[in-house]
Amino acid sequence: MLLIYPPAARSTEPPPGIARLAGALKSSGVPARTLDLCQEGLDWLLGLPLEAEDTWTKGALARRGRASALIRSPKAAENSDRYARAVLDLNRALKAAGRGLGVVPSLANYEDSSLSPLKAADLRASASRFEENLFFPFFERRLEETFKDFPAGNVGISVSFLSQALCAFAIAGYIRARHPEKRIVLGGGLVTSWVAQGRVAEGESFGGLVDAIIPGRGEEGLGRWLGATLARSAAPDYDDLAANPYFSPRRVIPYNFTTGCPWKKCVFCPEKAEDSPYFGLGAAESRAEIEGLVKRYEPGLLHFTDNEIAPLYLAALAENPPGAPWYGFARFSPRLADPGFCRRLAVSGCLMLQLGLESGDQAVLDAMGKGTRIGEIERILDNLKAAGIGTYLYVLFGTPSENRESALVTRDFIEERAGSIDFLNVAVFNMPSTSEEAPLLSMRDFYEGELSLYREFVHPRGWNRDAVRSFLSRDFETSPGIKSILLRNPPVFTSNHAPFFLGHSG
């Protein structure tokens, strides 16, 4: 089976989903190969002979080789201004590749002015008009090379992000037209959400384009579709991917202990809205898998991609260091309120934890169902700072339980603790279409298209998106301590590159 990761999304590390599936297939005796057309495709675009229509683009095109090399060098983090210029140059060069075609590719996105990934009809059009896709000359060549060397009868396309959907369907359209004997299956995070929220039926074929849609953990559904018994879990196999030149200063290997969320009580979260099942490996099993990955691929950084590294696994990491620096999402849990435990995490190689603060107002946190306490959050931030572990905090404005006064409480909370916060992700709330709160509010379409996973709502306290955005630009981002944090955020690559900019990560 050939497993494909399509353009375009941030490409700083191998895609873990198809690597995990490849491991399950191979360990069960099913030949498998993985192909990252996202990473390869972006490099192909950056290598095209392109013309510039303005001075900035001309300079960006001239500097793109050096910029690409810098992003992939340990020197990337030595000068944040030079790094930011390199990222902007690469995005400008990619934009030039789509000029005149109505397409805007970037290091993190792919936009087509004539087609929307939120409309099934447009996705089918992308498939039928695959030759018009910006990446077509590239993926035609790579697929033919791969099929010649590995004549797989089954092809799986993993669609994790909305930015990949149009290209994924163009690739599927090409395979259906040129290789009708091959069976095509769609999976990945976006497909799972479409099915879970009722946007796409599990038996949908998009007009005969695909043979199956498999939401959720592919190890289970893919085995049934293939008529094979796959290992319930197997270590990811990065043999086809690890040597790829990803946009990262070091080799990063992703790994997940779990799928789903162990908490799943936050009313604003898609995990709750979609009722995603939770599955976790045993601590001993995961330790053996990680040790094998570190020995085999020698990563400069491990990225734990779980929605939350549950306390069980944090304790296992503290007790048995993985053998490489690491980072990932964690919850403000009581375990982190122990300063000694945080020190042990730092010794184990923990460079940074991503933490969902969401709000600095306790009443808002309670209404959200976060299950966290402000006093404990304060202690945890102090503990992590003292231990030398970086923090990447996530805040969310515009939830139904918030108003301007509680947003100001959040601003003041972050401003007062700016010295303990390394990076910030600031977001405006989008209501999941299937949220339990949606029927209680006046709703309207947010994005045009029946595949949209989110809807806009009339805020019960008048704290609508325009007011939230005004607050962010006038009152939040201008606050001195907050502004200094935001200036540290790596552009485009954000949390994927943040660990490299921490002073202790070298």
Task: Describe, in plain words, how this protein is organized in 3D.
The protein is α/β, with parallel strands linked by helices and 506 residues long. It has two domains: 249 residues; 250 residues, tm_1862 like domain (pyruvate-formate lyase- activating enzyme, Alpha-Beta Horseshoe). The chain contains 19 helices and 18 strands. It has a six-stranded parallel sheet. A five-stranded parallel sheet has the order 2-1-5-6-7, with helices on both faces. Strands 16-18-17 form a three-stranded antiparallel sheet, with no helix packed on it. Helix 3 packs across helix 4, helix 12 crosses helix 13 and helix 13 packs across helix 15. The radius of gyration is 23 Å and the shape is globular.
